[in-house]
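Exam revision sheet. Question 4 asks you to relate a sequence to its structure. Input first:
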Amino acid sequence: MDSPPKEGTAWAFAIALALPALLLPIYNPDLFWHLSAGRWIVEHRAVPRTDFLSFTAAGTEWLDFEWLSQLIFQGIYGWGGLSWLWLLKIALLLSGWLVLNDLLKLQGLSPRSRAAGFCLWSAGVLPYSDIRPELFSVLFFTVVLRLLEGSRLGGRSLDWRAMAGLFLLFALWTNLHAGFFFGLLLFAIYAAVELALGRWRSAARLAAGAAAGGLGSLCQPYGLGSYRVALAHGLMRAELSRYILEWRPFGVGNPLHWPLWLTLAACAALILHRAASGGGWRERLPWAPVLAAAYFGLGMLAHGRLSTYFNVTAVPLILILCRDGGLAGANRRLWPAPLFGYALFLCWLLPRVSWAGGVFNYKYVPRQAAEFMDRERAGLEGLKLYNAWEWGGYLGWRLHPWYKVYSDGRYIFHGELAPTAEAASDPAKWRGFMLGRRLDGALLPNLDVRFPTRRRYPDGTEKPFSRPWYISYMPSDRWALVYWDAQALLFVDRRKVPAPWLARHDYRCLKPKDDAAFMDALARGEIPAARLELEKARHKLELGL
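Answer key, structure tokens:
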């Protein structure tokens, strides 16, 4: 039996390793269209049914099945800003762990094993330690797993009170996030195992529990709308994975995913070890937890967002397989090595995390550009500007109420991803895209991409240059560069803005990442010195330098 001092040491070490994953800054750019929706709900005392944030899809049907999460986010933000949303993220994650810890107690795991499980769970939290409606799904998914494991281990039937609780749980869940599907799927897995083992009454009770949850999931403003949207997402999954990072298969390029790869490998190895041990096939494995972890683990390889649910199912499975597979006695020798390795990983990772924006990492939103646009509302209001898909949520929230976006992270713009990517593949296609969509400008990422060009001089000689991509994508005879920083470039149609405003903001001489061509023109006296100094001074002022 573990002695109390050693248990205390194990928990202290576990908490020290788990805290970094919980305390990471939030960074999700979709947070802001959620806040915009929450603000709209508060103002109109109703849920949205059509788009109100864009000029491209205005009036289009939008089934906002995350409306309750958005209302909660807006309320929390109104009380304490982004810092309180960061605290909400921590609270939701910790709530999920407390439920999982209760499950580990139910499974008879020692405090030392649960402490190791806390570290393992927190390592899997790294990729989604952010504020998003999905956190509610992860919490409720853990609650459902705890209920199902209690039924499996204790042989307790789901009585009418449990059925009523499931109905209410799923009625709440379906208004927070569409991940309630995975809760119903978990019921289906456990019921199928009971059926395969010939436990008909238990399977029937689990099926009844799933039915109660399914009925609860209909208690939302859009009826079957959530199911319809989820089906559409499923049919488009292959296409969406080409354009949306979170929809792509789980990869090895993201360091935040590395601990989950090790969890997946450990899970597979322990399942094989246990399956090869003695005893009947029924007794060799806890089949329902194994199938649940296998489903979400394999699903994670095809769709990275399933990693959140795999983490919840894998942690208790790994711990009970270690115990039941004859490895309990070796735990004291086996656990220190991976925990020490994880500590070294955190020492490498944490210095690479940016806290420059405080509790929110502004890396994925055009903060400075939006501030410029707000200051220059008089010249920009009414323009139809293209924006990067992931930036739309922030722009629509920050520039409310006068600015309407081209698109944002909502599913109603999924159809725009393919044509936009095709247009971006070639300068001529992009110019045609801008004209065909009748756009008045664009807020674009300031990419470090260059194309080879040649300049012909009056004497007939030529010289090669490597010039930034926007020179050919947004030619200056039509599009004026009126703002730029390290993150974003803002172009407007010269014919669509007031001439006095354009004269004050047009960057004709000073342009980003075009040093070779700039120095050549400067050496030849082609750049007016007075105008260049004015543009330099204006740029420093705009960036607050």
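Marking note for examiners. The longest helix spans residues 67-106.
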